[in-house]
Every structure is written in structure tokens, then in C-alpha cells.
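Q: Start with the shorter request: fold the first protein.
A: Done. Sequence, then structure:
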Amino acid sequence: MNRKIRILSPQSISKIAAGEVIENSLSVIKELVENSIDSKATEIVVTVKDAGKSFISVSDNGCGIEKDELHMAFIRHATSKLQDDSIYDIQYLGFRGEALASILAVSDITIITKTEEEDHAWELSLSSLSDEKNALLNDNTITTEIQEKISNLITPKNRAKGTTIEVKGLFAPTPNKLRFLKNNNAELHSILQFMHSIALAYQNCNFKLFSESKLLFDTTRDQFDDDILKQRIIDIFGNEFTNNIAKVSYTGFSREIKINGYVTIPTYTPSIRKQKSIIFVNGRLIHDYSIICFIKAAYSGLIANNLKPLAILFIEIPLQDVDVNIHPHKTEVKFSDITSIKNAVVNAVREALSSPYIAQSLTENQLYSGFDTSYNLSNEYEARDSYKHSNQDKHESTLLPLSARYPIEDFTAMNKAIEERITESQLDDKLYYFGNPICQISNLFIISYNSNTDDLFVIEQHAAHERVMLEKMKDALLHKKKLKMQNLLLPISTEISGTEAMIILEQHDTLLKYGIKIKMMQDKIHIVGIPIILQILPSVSPHEKVIQILNHVIQNSALVKEISETAIIEIYNEVACHSSILKGKSLSKEEMCILLREMERYNFTAQCNHGRPTYIKITHDFLLKIFQR
């Protein structure tokens, strides 16, 4: 039988369109809450019954809707937020004019709204089977008669300025959709997570969530805190999480990209296993896998590969540089310059994590459970520069000799350097974050004390020295024009295609900077020079490493600098691990002091090269609490 092509009825079209926007109770709440935010509301209350399946109410104190425009709010693609010439300059969370029409297509709706100018509020109720509802969902059939009927349905009501929208019988017109909803606990959990996220972004607004008349979430008291965002993070994620985050505050070179928020410190393993990073772009909550990858990339060399850092980031970029109109839920966006976004995110997170003053601050639970691994960020940012730079020239390290005055490839003196005599100097521990060393325990842990802050530190000497050495080598690499190269008597030859040869030859100068010298002869490429650092460790095959670098360059020639640096730093990691102070090495107080000063001088020294903590901090207040003083 031949099937004739026909145009669907307006009702069917509306239900299909609604399915793109409204998937569950959360979809309804998200659209209504975002509308409330767009209306400049400062109070938003969400109430649900049966996890929103039977009843949803969103009430706000926003600008309201005028009586004459009330019916227009339910017509698809009718909106006050967008002009025809501003489709790529969207300043609101909602802009398509689809939300209320989509909700109306799959439920019954009552709206009560009042503007500042009107004497009282107005109420309009639309049931799922009414002619008025069908007419609104098909804007081509709104006749004068229908308009009069809708006007007759609008009745006066008492309420303050703002809007309340009640949704009943979700998916009653499309009962098959109910089969795809999760159980009530799962649906309610999703709603609560959204409320948490949106509350973080809009700190000038109070949010409440009720379920079956029970208050689940309330931000009202946060308005009295100096740092509303920090207090909301405490309320949502708890003190343990909040004590293990680093503040992000970044402005790009062009000042067009700004990133603020918080990220978990490298040595912290979140107990909230299912928690995901929360990302906002221009105030819009988004789910972007690329940004999550950029965040993880910023932790490279700071955490183990199997660990997942968490972030709460607010990214601000010019409106014209991001397209928010690519997904029905508006949770996915497209950037005009993804490379700039990558650089900004990586730099912002890396900058936040660079402080050496990230320490484990013990809690009672950790004390009584064998010091479980959870590490606390100390709030020492303002003092960082004074600690980091005070008198550092007066106490030049002889314990760790690799610096600008040493060739970066000369590692032979490292193991002997610690044996060298160090000029004794009396240090004022008020000038230094870690204070002065007191003693060494088990020839592995250094105990130091800062008399100015009354903080006690336990430093793991091997982990700390390993990180310091790596940072010194990386610093030297950054400031060096070219790595030292070992010329080969017998070149390494490998066959490659003509296209691959062109890629390699185009990157000749960059590769040479990293100590790789190549020549092309016939259909073979000859490696005639390699970085001298590759000769340092017997566990590393210089030939295999260079071939590996070239293969990576062929696959992605645009990243030749990153590929080369990553390969060199991998070698540095192993050099630092094998050459640093070992467990069992007895240190004098002068040697311990030099190590502490180096930890203060370089970035990322709060964790070793494998992501483990290098020290913990025990505060005076913590000791008082433990001893019930």
C-alpha cells in the first residue's frame, strides 16, 4: 500500500516540538527558572510533588507579564528577549519563545502574574483538552473569537509583583513519555543538582526547593555572608570539599576572556564520586566535553591519570564569540575560537594550582581513621609573594644546584651536591611560609614550625625534593633557547613517506630547539643529533624516544612544541625521581632549611611528580580542638 505524504496536525507538531525541549520534570523546572532569572527575579521558589510528575510550581518576584500580553507568552516563538537582528548577540538564558508553548503541549498550566504598574495580578489557566490551548499552540488559527475566549479566562488575583507558574499532569497528553522517566528519587536528585548549580551562578538571587512540602534547599541565609559563592559551595558540597579547592581568577591577555571560580587541589580525591564539574559560559549552565578535557589537561603532571579533578568555573567571553543556539536544551555551545578557550582554561586552572602553599589540614575524622588522604588548601595567597621572594637571593641553594647558572643537562653533580658544605645562616621564620626545620623523623619526614602563624608542617623529603628538581629543570627549559644536543656517529635511519618527510622538514627548526637534528636522504630520514638528556637514564632508549616524538609530530604537526616539551618533561620526571633525596638520608638542619626555601620558591611543590602530597599542615586551632582546649 502506498503511503501518502501529508502535513501533520498542529497538535502533533506541537507534541513533537515539545519532546525536543521537555524530556522530564527537570526540563520544565530549568526552563521556568531560567525565565525567572531573565525577569530579574531575586527570589525563586520551586515546589514539586511526585518529583514533578504530578505538580510543579515556580514562583518569582520578577518583572511579571502584562495582562494584554499574557496569552502571547504561550504562542510558540513569541518572545520579548530577542530582536530579529540580535540572533547572534543573545544576552538572556531563554530566547526562542519555546518553553511555555512546549510545556503547555504536554501538561495543564496555570499562570499568575503581576507587573509593578498593575493594581493586581492576573490568572490564566489552560487545560490539556481546551480549544483555547490548541489555538495558542497553533498561532495561525487565533481568531478574534478565540482571543475573546482567552481574555474571558483571565481573572484577577492577589499576589505581589512577579510570576507563579503551576504545571499539573506532566505528559498526560503523551502518556507514553512517562515510561521513560526515572524513579522519583532519581528525578528529584537531578532537580536538586540543577538548583545547586544555578544557585552558584546567580548569587544575587535566593533559591528554595520544596518537595512534598519539605524544604530541600534554601540559600536565603547566604545573603548575609561576605563571600556568597564560597558559602553556597559549603552548603552544597560541605566543608571538606570547600577546604580543598583553589580559587580561580583569570583575565586573558586581550581581556576578552575572563574565568573565575574554584578547582579541586591536585592531592584531593573527592568523596563525591558522581559529582561532575559545573561550567557556566556567560551565565549559562553548559555540558561541554572539550572544556572538561581542558581542565584535566591543566592538571597534567600534578595528578594520576585515573583521577578526576572537579571545577566550578564561570567563563565570560564576548557574546558574538559563542553560539548558544545549537541544542534544544541550550546546554551545548559552539565557540568561534576553541583554541583561545583551551589556552584560557588551561592557563586559568594552572595558575590557580601553581601555589606551593597547598597543604593537607588534618580533620578529626582523618586523625582517627589513619590520616585518610584529603588535602586542604591553605588561605595564604596574600602572603605568598612575601614568603616566595623574601631573601631568596641570600640563601642560594647548594642542596639543589640545578638553576640558571648550571647547564640543564649537567645532572652529575646532583647526588653529590647534598654533601657539600652549606653556609650556616640564622633565618627569621616570620619571613618564610614553612618556618624553620625542627627535626627529621625516620630520615624521611622533616618537621618544621612557623612561630608567626603557629603552624606545624610535616614534609616528606623525597617527594618534596623530587618536585623541586622537576620545577627547576622545567624553569631552565623555559628560559633556554635550545637544548644541548649529542651528535651521533651513526645516524638513526627510518623510512617514511614523502608527505611525512615534508611534515618533519617543515618542523626542522622547532625540533632543533629541542635537540633533535634531522637530515633527509632519498626516501629515508636520518636523525643525526638527539637531546643529550636522553643519555642520562639507562631505562630510556634514546632512539625509541626520538622516533616516538617524530611519529607524534607527523600525526599532529600543529602541536610539535607541546609534543617535544612533553617528551622532555617525561625524561625530567624520571631524572628527578632517581636523583632526589632518598628515604633514609639523614639531613642536617641547614640542608633541611635549604629544601624548605626551595619549596617556597617554586610552583607546584605541594605535590610530587606523581600527584602525592609533599607536606601536610597542622594548624594551632586544630591542635586545640583535638586536645579539647
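Q: Next, the second protein, separately.
A: Sequence, then structure:
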Amino acid sequence: MAHLCKPWDKNLIRKENSWELPELGWAKINVDGAFCAGSGNAGIGIIIRIVPIQSCYRLESTFATGRRRKN
């Protein structure tokens, strides 16, 4: 996981991604999370899209706090 700690480099290669509607009878769940080392707070966001139902459900929460452990 050391690669996660490298400083930002604007010359990194980026891959273009696009979201596609799920097939009929399927659901698509998109999840993202974040952690702030400074405050110790963590959060998660979830979006659920069900086809053929034309609706989208969104959930979000700041659900945890943490602290750094000494090894």
C-alpha cells in the first residue's frame, strides 16, 4: 500500500470511466468511502439503481471515528 502515500503527480495516466445502466432485472450498487487522518472521521456513500424500476436510492453517512494506534 506504499503507492497510496506517494505525492500527487499531475502527469499520472488517467483512465476514462463511464457509468452504464444495469441490464433488465439487475441492480447496480456504487459505493465510495473516505477517511480523514487529521480528524479520524470516516464516511461512506452508496447509490443503488434497480432496473426496470426507474428509481435511484442514495444513502450517505459519517459512520465512524478512529485514532492512530502506536505500534
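Q: Describe the second briefly.
A: The first strand starts at residue 27 and ends at 35. The chain has a mean pLDDT of 72.
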